[in-house]
């Protein structure tokens, strides 16, 4: 029997604020007398809001009241109320995530979105969200190629790349369309790193200067070249490392990137260049032209993104409901838990003990907020450790890779596809001397970028209900 639910996605970004409503059709695909397996069988965006400049009180503070008014007005236009919605996400991204009152804005909006994912997406996680919204992971899997997505927004360019559909890395650069703002024909705002980039190439610009189109286009050309350097299509120059957001790290050189997709507001401008170059009060259209004309990107394949300006918001929320396997291990007093982001270890990494532990250790950095590790779940297939001895070895690897989680205040949450959770949970409890809460469930498939809810035990404690909130058009 089919059921239709309504989802909302709300994205508050550096340049723009927008939302979508989606209709999702779910159906139990399991046969009678078996454990229910609920899947999305159809999905359709039924309403797309206008695209608004994100209202700010200052360079460091979001205007929470105006943001909420935008969202309320769009609900009214769509004929929807918060109680009509069953799932969704509110995500604050880019430079906006670093505003002083970002978290209070999210809390202020949560009453309009119901019990949804409400998250401040750091630059690495945002890279994954936008890339999946753009469909780059699917292109990589279908083409069996290494595909990178560059989401060029107002304040940052978020990059994620995939090999055969598996996430291989992320990075983020301070390159975006609103890092130079134009007002009354003059430069009204200039991001320091972009000013330095220009000076590095002999171009002296400053706030108050006339907005000369040819001069600013040259700056945009250098910005586009830096994006190519981030993918190693061009060899990085001596200035390149200064452009990484929050002094972040570059991508790995391997595997070599074969194809690129572009998303974000600047990518949308690549499709609509005509007209006044400064009509948005920034250099977004000039940057779009520079990226489009950059000869370096002609060295790789360019695939069209499934979404451009709406890539992140389209990645804001569907859910599938499932139940765990019946052989699980959990700390009952820690349940229920909601809105836990998922770190997925690839099967390739899982098969190599050294890579497995390193993948977890490195992956944890994607889930930091201001240097603090957030609560998360570690997901993997579990099909390569099935004997008793192998599971003991797996437990030791998990303890090594997830050391920061174990030393932190949150429980160690493991989500496994194969039926090994109870034995693995017992092994971890023994090794950790039961000094750490462990929640270990199986029978669940989840990917990086997903969020999960784990409910209170049912069926006499044998199973727990699990809601996997995944990216729309990605399941």
Automatic annotation (TrEMBL):
Keyword Lyase recorded: yes
Pfam families (UniProt xref): EutA (PF06277)
The protein's name: Ethanolamine ammonia-lyase reactivating factor EutA
Phylogenetic placement of the source organism: Bacteria, Bacillati, Bacillota, Clostridia, Lachnospirales
Alphabetical UniProt keywords: Lyase
Organism from which the protein derives: Blautia argi
NCBIfam families (alphabetical): PRK10719.1-3
Alphabetized GO MF terms: lyase activity
């Amino acid at each position: 029997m089919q059921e239709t639910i309504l989802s909302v996605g709300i994205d508050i970004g550096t340049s723009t604020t927008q939302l979508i409503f989606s209709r999702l059709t779910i159906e139990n695909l399991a046969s009678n007398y078996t454990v229910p397996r609920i899947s999305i069988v159809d999905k359709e965006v039924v309403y797309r809001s206008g695209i608004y400049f994100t209202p700010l009180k200052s360079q460091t503070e979001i205007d929470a009241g105006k943001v909420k008014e935008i969202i309320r007005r769009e609900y009214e236009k769509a004929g929807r109320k918060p109680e009509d919605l069953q799932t969704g996400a509110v995500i604050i991204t880019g430079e906006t995530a670093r505003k002083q009152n970002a978290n209070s804005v999210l809390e202020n909006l949560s009453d309009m979105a119901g019990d949804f994912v409400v998250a401040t997406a750091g630059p690495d996680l945002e890279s994954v969200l936008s890339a999946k919204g753009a469909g780059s992971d699917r292109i990589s899997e279908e083409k069996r190629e290494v595909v990178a997505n560059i989401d060029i927004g107002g304040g940052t360019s978020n990059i994620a790349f995939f090999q055969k559909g598996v996430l291989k890395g992320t990075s983020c650069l301070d390159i975006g369309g609103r890092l130079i703002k134009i007002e009354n024909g003059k430069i009204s705002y200039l991001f320091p790193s972009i000013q330095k980039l220009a000076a590095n190439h002999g171009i002296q610009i400053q706030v108050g200067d006339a907005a000369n189109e040819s001069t600013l286009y040259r700056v945009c050309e250098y910005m586009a070249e830096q994006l190519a350097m981030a993918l190693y299509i061009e060899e990085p120059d001596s200035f390149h490392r200064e452009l990484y957001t929050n002094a972040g790290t570059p991508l790995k050189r391997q595997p070599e990137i074969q194809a690129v997709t572009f998303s974000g507001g600047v990518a949308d401008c690549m499709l609509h260049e005509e007209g006044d170059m400064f009509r948005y009060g920034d250099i977004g259209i000039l940057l779009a032209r520079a990226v489009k004309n950059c000869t370096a990107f002609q060295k790789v394949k360019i695939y069209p993104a499934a979404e451009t300006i709406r890539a992140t918001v389209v990645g804001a929320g569907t859910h599938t409901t499932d139940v765990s396997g019946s052989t699980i291990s959990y700390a009952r007093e820690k349940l229920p838990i909601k809105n836990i982001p998922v770190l997925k270890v690839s099967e390739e990494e899982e098969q190599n003990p050294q890579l497995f532990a390193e993948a977890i250790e490195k992956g944890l950095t994607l889930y930091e907020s201001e240097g603090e590790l957030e609560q998360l779940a570690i997901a993997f297939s579990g099909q390569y450790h099935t004997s008793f001895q192998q599971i003991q070895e797996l437990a030791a690897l998990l303890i090594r890779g997830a050391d920061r989680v174990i030393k932190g205040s949150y429980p160690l949450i493991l989500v496994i596809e194969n039926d090994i959770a109870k034995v693995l949970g017992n092994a971890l409890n023994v090794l950790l001397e039961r000094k750490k809460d462990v929640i270990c469930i199986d029978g669940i498939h989840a990917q990086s970028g997903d969020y999960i809810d784990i409910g209170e035990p049912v069926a006499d404690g044998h199973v727990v209900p699990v809601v996997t909130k995944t990216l729309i058009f990605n399941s």
